[in-house]
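for the writeup, i need someone to sanity check this before i put it in the appendix. the sequnce is what the collaborator sent (i think, or maybe the updated version? ugh). structure was predicted straight from it, no edits. if anything looks off just tell me and ill rerun, i have time this weekend
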Amino acid sequence: MVKRIGTYREAVELYSPERAGLYPSIKDSFSDVPIENAEKIKRFILTGGFLDIGTTAESVDMLTGESTGLRGNIRSDGFYSWPISLAYYVDKYNLRLPDDFVQHALAS
């Protein structure tokens, strides 16, 4: 079974507010310090695996509404599935991702 990462309360509130409380807030995963190996992690997020769901829809920052400069694409490698917009949050907010995913990304 593929493990989905990157689903946060703030995004779910936009399309399914009644389910938003089931998900963690993205803010709880922000760090004050830069993420170690951030460039390699971002590269895996953007190019690892294969394009699972492609879209022309623009991805927007779920906190500010500003463009992330990315599309709302979802990638997967058969083990994990993730939105490519996670790279934006790693860069802008020092988003900490699950340790198992980070180790997987670094080993790729």
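The chain has four helices and six strands. Residues 3-107 form one domain.
thx in advance!!
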